[in-house]
Design a protein that fits this description.
Mean pLDDT: 90
Oligomer: single chain
Number of strands: 2
Distance between the termini: 23 Å
Strand content: 5-15%
Helix content: 55-70%
Order of helices and strands: HEEHH
Low-confidence stretches: none
Strand order of the largest sheet: 1-2
Length: 117
């Protein structure tokens, strides 16, 4: 297994995901691995319903993107932990080695193709 190769792929993807998360979210100061969608500034004195609706829609979009990116962030962090523990590349369901093709397609994969959910 080319663990060092996958570690580099995971670290590069982690940096990209963190950068993207920074555009739509902020780190939770109490838990640095937790991200929260950025709240949009709303002028509550402005009675324009369209502007308020746009701000709510923008926040909802940020939250959706944030949640997707945060899930991937956690998958990558988990894979990096497995590399440190020496258990990377082992199916978490059956215990068999994860196929190289699967890891190449998704270095954060936790199961072999047979157990892919």
């Amino acid at each position: 297994m080319q663990t060092e190769h996958y570690k580099k792929l995971l670290e590069a993807e982690l940096a990209t995901v963190e950068q993207e998360l920074g555009t739509v979210g902020v780190r939770n100061p109490e838990n640095p691995d937790d991200w929260q969608a950025k709240e949009t500034e709303m002028d509550v004195t402005n009675k324009e319903n369209d502007e308020l609706a746009d701000k709510v829609e923008e926040y909802e979009e940020n939250r959706s993107i944030n949640d997707t990116l945060e899930a991937r962030y956690k998958q990558i962090k988990h894979a990096l932990e497995k590399i440190t523990e020496g258990t990377y590349g082992v199916c978490e369901i059956g215990g068999e080695p994860i196929e190289e093709e699967r890891l190449q397609a998704d270095p954060a994969a936790t199961t072999c193709i047979a157990h892919k959910g």
